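hiii, so i know i said id send this last week but things got crazy w the move. better late than never?? heres the sequnce for the chain we talked about at the cafe, plus the structure i predicted for it. fair warning i was half asleep when i ran it
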Amino acid sequence: MKSSAPTFDVNVNPDGFVVDLSSLYAHLATLHDGRHARGVRYALVTVLVFIVLAKLAGQDRLLGIAEWVKYRIAALTEALHLQRRRAPHNSTYSRILGYAVDIHEFEQVVSQFFAAQPQAGQSVVINLDGKTLRGTIPAGQTQGLHLLAAFLPCEGWVLLQVEVDGKENEIKAAPRLLKCLDLRNKIVTGDALLAQRELSIQIVEAGGDYVWTVKDN
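okay and structure toks below
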């Protein structure tokens, strides 16, 4: 059963983000609900909207998402025109993300939604940043799920991200990530690990520029 929230990141910008809930609902309504109709208490799209809104507010754990929704359920019920004012339990989010929906498809739909927003993706700077997700390290092991993301710092959301396989590192994953992006007139930034000749050439040949931050050591 899934114990962590989806890996997409949006709106780290403290100035906030305006979301068209009707459009968000329409995007998420395209996802298939893998649950049996009998015994279903919450519509799939409603729970997914809760998750996205909580993620927008900075919650990256299922327990945090559940608590965030719980304390705002009155306002959410009114804003979403829900018939009943009730907040899902933490286990409900876990079951839905674990069994009811394809998590990769969910993340892709969310990414497409934000990419369709006015002015989205028009930032010049694309920052490459890696992170290991909390709560993904299996018992007896030292390494969890590690992702390399193409982050738009001026807009506050992740444009695209790829999983860094345990047998490779970010140097190997970066070319795969950048190959999927339009780098024309963009500036790709990253830390010293990514200051690689082949990667730099790839960016320039794709029409972009690069800035690698290299410390004295």
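btw Helices lie at 21-28, 44-56, 62-70, 73-80, 90-100, 103-115, 170-179, 197-205. thought thatd interest u
miss u guys!!
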